Amino acid sequence: AGTLREAAEAEGVFIGSAIADHRLSDSRYNAIASTEFNSVTAENVMKWESIQPSRGSFNFAGGDRLVDFAEQNDQQVWGHTLVWHSQLPDWVENGGFDAAELTAITDEHITTVMDHYEGDIAYWDVVNEAFNEDGTFRQSVFQQTIGEEYIANAFRTAAQADPGAKLCINDYNIEGVNAKSNGMYNLVRDLLAAGVQVDCVGFQSHLILDSIPGDIRTNLQRFADLGVEVVVTELDIRIPMPADSAELQRQGDQFESVVSSCLAVDGCAGVTVWGFGDADSWVPDVFEGQGAACLYDENYQPKPAYDGVLAGLGGE
Ligand code: G3I
Protein backbone atom coordinates (compact mmCIF):
# COMPACT_ATOMS: atom_id res chain seq x y z
CA ALA A 1 0.00 0.00 0.00
CA GLY A 2 1.10 3.53 -0.66
CA THR A 3 1.38 6.33 1.84
CA LEU A 4 -1.28 8.84 2.84
CA ARG A 5 0.78 11.43 1.06
CA GLU A 6 0.80 9.54 -2.23
CA ALA A 7 -2.96 9.06 -2.04
CA ALA A 8 -3.52 12.74 -1.30
CA GLU A 9 -1.22 13.85 -4.11
CA ALA A 10 -3.13 11.66 -6.54
CA GLU A 11 -6.32 13.48 -5.49
CA GLY A 12 -4.73 16.93 -5.70
CA VAL A 13 -5.24 17.64 -1.99
CA PHE A 14 -2.91 17.76 0.97
CA ILE A 15 -2.75 15.50 3.99
CA GLY A 16 -1.17 17.15 7.00
CA SER A 17 -0.39 16.65 10.64
CA ALA A 18 0.23 18.91 13.57
CA ILE A 19 3.88 18.50 14.52
CA ALA A 20 5.16 18.61 18.08
CA ASP A 21 8.54 20.32 17.97
CA HIS A 22 9.97 18.32 20.86
CA ARG A 23 9.11 14.99 19.18
CA LEU A 24 11.06 15.52 15.94
CA SER A 25 14.18 14.09 17.57
CA ASP A 26 12.46 10.68 17.95
CA SER A 27 13.37 8.66 14.86
CA ARG A 28 10.05 6.79 14.62
CA TYR A 29 8.12 10.01 14.95
CA ASN A 30 10.34 11.82 12.48
CA ALA A 31 10.08 9.03 9.90
CA ILE A 32 6.29 9.05 9.89
CA ALA A 33 6.08 12.83 9.94
CA SER A 34 8.35 13.10 6.92
CA THR A 35 6.95 10.31 4.76
CA GLU A 36 3.19 10.16 5.38
CA PHE A 37 2.30 13.85 5.12
CA ASN A 38 2.81 16.63 2.60
CA SER A 39 1.67 19.41 4.93
CA VAL A 40 2.72 20.26 8.48
CA THR A 41 1.19 22.55 11.08
CA ALA A 42 3.05 23.80 14.15
CA GLU A 43 1.20 22.32 17.12
CA ASN A 44 2.48 25.02 19.48
CA VAL A 45 5.62 26.83 18.35
CA MET A 46 3.97 29.50 16.20
CA LYS A 47 1.46 30.57 18.83
CA TRP A 48 1.73 34.05 20.32
CA GLU A 49 3.11 32.92 23.70
CA SER A 50 5.89 31.01 21.93
CA ILE A 51 6.73 33.58 19.31
CA GLN A 52 6.38 36.89 21.21
CA PRO A 53 6.50 35.91 24.89
CA SER A 54 7.31 39.42 25.97
CA ARG A 55 6.60 42.63 24.18
CA GLY A 56 8.90 43.19 21.21
CA SER A 57 10.96 40.05 21.82
CA PHE A 58 10.37 37.47 19.12
CA ASN A 59 11.48 33.85 19.22
CA PHE A 60 11.31 32.12 15.87
CA ALA A 61 13.52 29.13 16.71
CA GLY A 62 10.79 26.49 16.95
CA GLY A 63 8.93 27.74 13.90
CA ASP A 64 12.15 27.90 11.92
CA ARG A 65 12.86 24.26 12.80
CA LEU A 66 9.47 23.28 11.40
CA VAL A 67 10.03 25.30 8.22
CA ASP A 68 13.42 23.60 7.74
CA PHE A 69 11.88 20.18 8.35
CA ALA A 70 9.19 20.89 5.78
CA GLU A 71 11.70 22.11 3.24
CA GLN A 72 13.79 18.94 3.64
CA ASN A 73 10.69 16.84 3.09
CA ASP A 74 9.07 18.91 0.37
CA GLN A 75 6.03 19.73 2.52
CA GLN A 76 3.87 22.83 2.78
CA VAL A 77 3.66 24.63 6.11
CA TRP A 78 0.38 25.70 7.67
CA GLY A 79 0.90 28.61 10.07
CA HIS A 80 -0.98 28.31 13.37
CA THR A 81 -1.98 30.83 14.66
CA LEU A 82 -1.81 34.65 14.72
CA VAL A 83 -4.79 35.95 16.74
CA TRP A 84 -6.21 33.61 19.39
CA HIS A 85 -7.47 34.07 22.93
CA SER A 86 -5.52 31.05 24.22
CA GLN A 87 -1.78 30.58 24.65
CA LEU A 88 -1.73 34.34 24.64
CA PRO A 89 0.93 35.83 26.89
CA ASP A 90 -0.15 37.64 29.98
CA TRP A 91 1.34 40.93 28.75
CA VAL A 92 -1.29 40.95 25.98
CA GLU A 93 -4.20 39.41 27.86
CA ASN A 94 -3.91 41.50 30.96
CA GLY A 95 -2.00 44.48 29.63
CA GLY A 96 -4.91 46.86 30.14
CA PHE A 97 -4.52 48.27 26.62
CA ASP A 98 -7.15 50.42 24.97
CA ALA A 99 -8.53 49.61 21.51
CA ALA A 100 -5.94 51.64 19.60
CA GLU A 101 -3.05 50.14 21.55
CA LEU A 102 -4.26 46.56 21.25
CA THR A 103 -4.88 47.02 17.53
CA ALA A 104 -1.35 48.33 17.07
CA ILE A 105 0.08 45.44 19.11
CA THR A 106 -1.90 42.91 17.07
CA ASP A 107 -0.88 44.50 13.78
CA GLU A 108 2.74 44.46 14.84
CA HIS A 109 2.54 40.81 15.85
CA ILE A 110 0.91 39.76 12.59
CA THR A 111 3.27 41.81 10.45
CA THR A 112 6.46 40.74 12.18
CA VAL A 113 5.58 37.05 12.18
CA MET A 114 4.28 36.97 8.62
CA ASP A 115 7.27 38.96 7.34
CA HIS A 116 9.64 36.53 9.00
CA TYR A 117 7.96 33.57 7.33
CA GLU A 118 7.06 35.22 4.04
CA GLY A 119 7.35 32.69 1.24
CA ASP A 120 7.52 29.74 3.66
CA ILE A 121 3.89 29.48 4.73
CA ALA A 122 1.13 28.40 2.38
CA TYR A 123 -1.81 29.06 4.74
CA TRP A 124 -2.12 31.07 7.94
CA ASP A 125 -4.77 30.69 10.60
CA VAL A 126 -5.18 34.44 10.99
CA VAL A 127 -7.97 34.26 13.55
CA ASN A 128 -8.66 31.17 15.64
CA GLU A 129 -11.73 30.27 17.70
CA ALA A 130 -13.56 33.60 17.53
CA PHE A 131 -16.96 32.09 18.33
CA ASN A 132 -19.01 30.88 21.26
CA GLU A 133 -21.10 27.74 20.83
CA ASP A 134 -24.24 29.83 20.22
CA GLY A 135 -22.66 31.65 17.29
CA THR A 136 -21.99 34.92 19.10
CA PHE A 137 -18.47 36.28 19.33
CA ARG A 138 -16.28 34.93 22.11
CA GLN A 139 -15.47 37.58 24.67
CA SER A 140 -11.71 37.41 24.15
CA VAL A 141 -9.51 40.33 25.08
CA PHE A 142 -9.58 41.29 21.38
CA GLN A 143 -13.37 41.24 21.18
CA GLN A 144 -13.80 43.02 24.50
CA THR A 145 -11.27 45.73 23.78
CA ILE A 146 -11.61 46.30 20.04
CA GLY A 147 -14.97 44.78 19.16
CA GLU A 148 -15.65 42.44 16.28
CA GLU A 149 -13.71 44.60 13.83
CA TYR A 150 -10.55 43.07 15.27
CA ILE A 151 -11.23 40.22 12.85
CA ALA A 152 -11.44 42.29 9.66
CA ASN A 153 -8.49 44.30 10.85
CA ALA A 154 -6.38 41.19 11.38
CA PHE A 155 -7.18 39.92 7.89
CA ARG A 156 -6.41 43.28 6.28
CA THR A 157 -3.09 43.46 8.10
CA ALA A 158 -2.26 39.87 7.14
CA ALA A 159 -3.04 40.49 3.47
CA GLN A 160 -0.50 43.31 3.42
CA ALA A 161 2.13 41.39 5.38
CA ASP A 162 2.35 38.36 3.08
CA PRO A 163 0.32 38.70 -0.11
CA GLY A 164 1.34 35.17 -1.10
CA ALA A 165 -0.17 33.39 1.88
CA LYS A 166 -3.73 32.11 2.00
CA LEU A 167 -5.59 33.58 4.95
CA CYS A 168 -7.90 31.40 7.00
CA ILE A 169 -10.29 31.56 9.90
CA ASN A 170 -10.43 28.41 12.01
CA ASP A 171 -12.72 27.01 14.69
CA TYR A 172 -14.05 23.86 16.36
CA ASN A 173 -17.59 22.49 16.57
CA ILE A 174 -18.41 24.07 13.21
CA GLU A 175 -18.20 20.83 11.21
CA GLY A 176 -21.97 20.39 10.93
CA VAL A 177 -24.72 22.94 10.39
CA ASN A 178 -25.40 24.49 13.80
CA ALA A 179 -25.58 27.85 15.57
CA LYS A 180 -21.81 28.18 15.73
CA SER A 181 -21.21 27.32 12.08
CA ASN A 182 -24.04 29.70 11.14
CA GLY A 183 -22.17 32.43 13.00
CA MET A 184 -19.01 31.58 11.08
CA TYR A 185 -20.90 31.45 7.80
CA ASN A 186 -22.41 34.89 8.36
CA LEU A 187 -19.05 36.36 9.33
CA VAL A 188 -17.22 34.99 6.29
CA ARG A 189 -20.03 36.10 3.98
CA ASP A 190 -19.94 39.61 5.47
CA LEU A 191 -16.14 39.87 5.36
CA LEU A 192 -16.11 38.86 1.70
CA ALA A 193 -18.90 41.32 0.91
CA ALA A 194 -16.83 44.04 2.58
CA GLY A 195 -13.87 43.21 0.35
CA VAL A 196 -11.79 41.61 3.10
CA GLN A 197 -9.52 38.84 1.85
CA VAL A 198 -10.52 35.53 3.42
CA ASP A 199 -9.25 32.55 1.45
CA CYS A 200 -10.21 29.62 3.59
CA VAL A 201 -12.20 28.31 6.51
CA GLY A 202 -10.65 25.71 8.80
CA PHE A 203 -12.92 23.13 10.41
CA GLN A 204 -10.87 21.81 13.31
CA SER A 205 -12.85 18.57 13.68
CA HIS A 206 -11.96 17.45 17.19
CA LEU A 207 -14.62 14.77 17.06
CA ILE A 208 -16.08 12.09 19.30
CA LEU A 209 -16.53 8.45 18.32
CA ASP A 210 -20.10 7.71 17.20
CA SER A 211 -21.00 11.42 17.32
CA ILE A 212 -19.74 12.61 13.97
CA PRO A 213 -22.13 15.20 12.49
CA GLY A 214 -23.99 13.69 9.55
CA ASP A 215 -24.01 16.89 7.52
CA ILE A 216 -20.32 17.74 7.24
CA ARG A 217 -20.39 17.64 3.46
CA THR A 218 -23.46 19.87 3.25
CA ASN A 219 -21.97 22.34 5.69
CA LEU A 220 -18.57 22.53 4.01
CA GLN A 221 -20.27 22.90 0.65
CA ARG A 222 -22.16 26.03 1.73
CA PHE A 223 -18.86 27.63 2.71
CA ALA A 224 -17.24 26.54 -0.54
CA ASP A 225 -20.17 28.14 -2.35
CA LEU A 226 -19.07 31.46 -0.86
CA GLY A 227 -15.86 31.03 -2.84
CA VAL A 228 -13.46 30.07 -0.05
CA GLU A 229 -11.40 26.91 0.31
CA VAL A 230 -12.52 24.54 3.04
CA VAL A 231 -10.05 22.50 5.05
CA VAL A 232 -10.29 19.98 7.87
CA THR A 233 -7.49 21.39 10.03
CA GLU A 234 -7.19 19.47 13.31
CA LEU A 235 -8.89 16.11 12.89
CA ASP A 236 -8.99 13.57 15.68
CA ILE A 237 -11.71 11.23 16.98
CA ARG A 238 -11.57 10.46 20.69
CA ILE A 239 -12.78 7.30 22.41
CA PRO A 240 -13.50 6.50 26.07
CA MET A 241 -10.51 4.52 27.36
CA PRO A 242 -9.67 1.75 27.07
CA ALA A 243 -10.76 1.51 23.44
CA ASP A 244 -11.76 -1.98 22.27
CA SER A 245 -11.23 -3.36 18.80
CA ALA A 246 -14.83 -2.76 17.71
CA GLU A 247 -14.47 0.88 18.66
CA LEU A 248 -11.19 1.17 16.81
CA GLN A 249 -12.85 -0.29 13.71
CA ARG A 250 -15.72 2.19 13.91
CA GLN A 251 -13.21 4.95 14.43
CA GLY A 252 -11.53 3.91 11.18
CA ASP A 253 -14.85 4.11 9.33
CA GLN A 254 -15.54 7.51 10.85
CA PHE A 255 -12.13 8.87 9.86
CA GLU A 256 -12.84 7.67 6.33
CA SER A 257 -16.21 9.34 6.32
CA VAL A 258 -14.86 12.73 7.49
CA VAL A 259 -12.04 12.70 4.95
CA SER A 260 -14.27 11.64 2.08
CA SER A 261 -16.90 14.23 3.08
CA CYS A 262 -14.32 16.96 2.70
CA LEU A 263 -12.94 15.61 -0.56
CA ALA A 264 -16.48 15.40 -1.97
CA VAL A 265 -16.65 19.19 -1.75
CA ASP A 266 -15.23 21.13 -4.65
CA GLY A 267 -12.92 23.53 -2.84
CA CYS A 268 -11.70 21.11 -0.17
CA ALA A 269 -7.96 21.78 -0.21
CA GLY A 270 -6.95 19.09 2.24
CA VAL A 271 -7.14 17.48 5.62
CA THR A 272 -4.78 17.81 8.60
CA VAL A 273 -4.82 15.52 11.63
CA TRP A 274 -3.96 16.95 15.03
CA GLY A 275 -0.95 14.75 15.68
CA PHE A 276 -0.68 11.25 14.24
CA GLY A 277 0.27 9.16 17.28
CA ASP A 278 -1.82 8.41 20.36
CA ALA A 279 1.34 8.83 22.44
CA ASP A 280 1.52 12.53 21.56
CA SER A 281 -2.13 13.54 21.49
CA TRP A 282 -3.46 16.49 23.49
CA VAL A 283 -6.72 14.58 24.16
CA PRO A 284 -5.94 12.63 27.37
CA ASP A 285 -4.53 15.78 28.98
CA VAL A 286 -7.78 17.67 28.46
CA PHE A 287 -10.52 15.00 28.42
CA GLU A 288 -9.95 12.70 31.34
CA GLY A 289 -10.53 9.05 30.48
CA GLN A 290 -10.58 9.64 26.72
CA GLY A 291 -7.91 9.03 24.14
CA ALA A 292 -6.85 6.77 21.26
CA ALA A 293 -7.87 9.64 19.00
CA CYS A 294 -5.15 9.36 16.34
CA LEU A 295 -4.04 7.26 13.36
CA TYR A 296 -1.24 5.37 15.11
CA ASP A 297 -1.20 3.68 18.50
CA GLU A 298 1.14 4.44 21.39
CA ASN A 299 3.89 2.46 19.63
CA TYR A 300 3.43 4.18 16.27
CA GLN A 301 1.71 1.17 14.74
CA PRO A 302 -1.02 2.13 12.27
CA LYS A 303 -4.59 1.65 13.50
CA PRO A 304 -7.79 1.13 11.49
CA ALA A 305 -7.95 4.94 11.65
CA TYR A 306 -4.92 5.06 9.38
CA ASP A 307 -6.62 2.77 6.86
CA GLY A 308 -9.74 4.91 7.12
CA VAL A 309 -7.89 8.08 6.22
CA LEU A 310 -6.12 6.28 3.38
CA ALA A 311 -9.44 5.02 2.04
CA GLY A 312 -11.00 8.47 2.44
CA LEU A 313 -8.18 9.81 0.26
CA GLY A 314 -9.00 7.21 -2.37
CA GLY A 315 -5.92 5.10 -1.57
CA GLU A 316 -5.60 1.50 -0.56
O1 G3I B 1 5.85 23.99 27.11
C1 G3I B 1 5.41 23.56 28.40
C2 G3I B 1 6.49 22.78 29.08
O2 G3I B 1 7.61 23.60 29.30
C3 G3I B 1 5.94 22.22 30.40
O3 G3I B 1 6.89 21.39 30.98
C4 G3I B 1 4.67 21.42 30.14
C5 G3I B 1 4.03 20.91 31.44
O4 G3I B 1 2.64 20.86 31.33
O5 G3I B 1 3.74 22.23 29.50
C6 G3I B 1 4.19 22.70 28.24
O6 G3I B 1 3.21 23.47 27.64
C7 G3I B 1 2.11 22.75 27.12
C8 G3I B 1 2.05 22.98 25.62
O7 G3I B 1 0.91 22.37 25.10
C9 G3I B 1 3.27 22.42 24.90
O8 G3I B 1 3.35 21.03 25.08
C10 G3I B 1 0.85 23.28 27.76
O9 G3I B 1 0.86 22.94 29.13
C11 G3I B 1 -0.36 22.70 27.09
O10 G3I B 1 -1.52 23.35 27.59
C12 G3I B 1 -0.29 22.92 25.61
O11 G3I B 1 -1.41 22.32 25.03
C13 G3I B 1 -1.69 22.63 23.70
C14 G3I B 1 -3.06 23.27 23.60
O12 G3I B 1 -3.38 23.52 22.25
C15 G3I B 1 -3.11 24.58 24.37
O13 G3I B 1 -4.31 25.25 24.15
C16 G3I B 1 -1.68 21.35 22.90
O14 G3I B 1 -0.34 20.82 22.86
C17 G3I B 1 -2.18 21.58 21.49
O15 G3I B 1 -2.39 20.36 20.84
C18 G3I B 1 -3.51 22.31 21.53
O16 G3I B 1 -3.92 22.59 20.22
C19 G3I B 1 -5.17 23.27 20.07
C20 G3I B 1 -5.04 24.14 18.83
O17 G3I B 1 -3.93 25.00 18.96
C21 G3I B 1 -6.31 24.95 18.59
N1 G3I B 1 -7.47 24.08 18.53
C22 G3I B 1 -7.61 23.15 19.65
C23 G3I B 1 -6.35 22.33 19.84
C24 G3I B 1 -6.52 21.32 20.96
O18 G3I B 1 -6.69 21.96 22.19
UniProtKB/TrEMBL annotation:
Keyword annotations for this protein, in alphabetical order, are: Carbohydrate metabolism, Glycosidase, Hydrolase, Polysaccharide degradation, Signal, Xylan degradation
Q: Locate the GH10 domain: which residues?
A: 1-312
Kindly identify the residues recorded as the active site: E234 (nucleophile)
Keyword Signal appears in the UniProt entry: yes
Its Gene Ontology molecular function terms? Answer: endo-1,4-beta-xylanase activity; polysaccharide binding
Listed EC numbers:
3.2.1.8
Q: Which reaction does it catalyse?
A: Endohydrolysis of (1->4)-beta-D-xylosidic linkages in xylans
Q: Which GO terms describe its biological process?
A: xylan catabolic process
Similarity comment: family membership: Belongs to the glycosyl hydrolase 10 (cellulase F) family.
Q: What is this protein called?
A: Beta-xylanase
Q: Which organism is the protein's source? A: Streptomyces marincola
